[in-house]
From TrEMBL:
Pfam families for the chain: Macro
Origin organism lineage: Bacteria, Bacillati, Actinomycetota, Actinomycetes, Kitasatosporales
Domain Macro: 1-169
Superkingdom, taxonomy of origin: Bacteria
Entry-linked PROSITE patterns: MACRO (PS51154)
PANTHER family: GANGLIOSIDE INDUCED DIFFERENTIATION ASSOCIATED PROTEIN 2-RELATED, MACRO DOMAIN-CONTAINING PROTEIN
Stretches of the chain forming a coiled coil according to its record: none
Protein name: Macro domain-containing protein
Residues making up the signal peptide according to the UniProt record: none
Amino acid sequence: MTELTLVKGSITEQDVDAVVNAANSSLLGGGGVDGAIHRQGGPEILAACRDLRAAHYGKGLPTGEAVATTAGRLPARWVIHTVGPVWSVSEDRSRLLASCHREALRVAGELGARTVAFPAISTGVYRWPLEDAARIATETVRATPTSVEEVRFVLFDDRAYEVFAARIG
């Protein structure tokens, strides 16, 4: 059984096997979690992402999929990049947000990662409502068969921490 834990702080400071990056489809960095991971991890992450773009993802990483790179200068060993969906009032994209978590766990398992840190995917500039994102994230992680022993949700502020804490119990 995978243990779910919570930390308030920066995902870039987590000493885990893998951190999950809420990436944009270009894989070339951006704002929020993506920008922080690229800044703290250094040029090795960007170089690995460019290699992935050149070899497999010329049009970018599709929403809901996941791929791993080195973690560069981060305390983690790997970064698992996943592209979350943009919130839509008119279209239910929940399956794509769930897929981000399932695919990240699949990649983590393939890497042999035992500890994985997730941010609150899609809740920043992609505007996914925090309560719903927490529900989807925790339910998906609990329901996904994995060899990962600990999933750590790393939340940047008090509100996000409290919302995820209410879901974990």
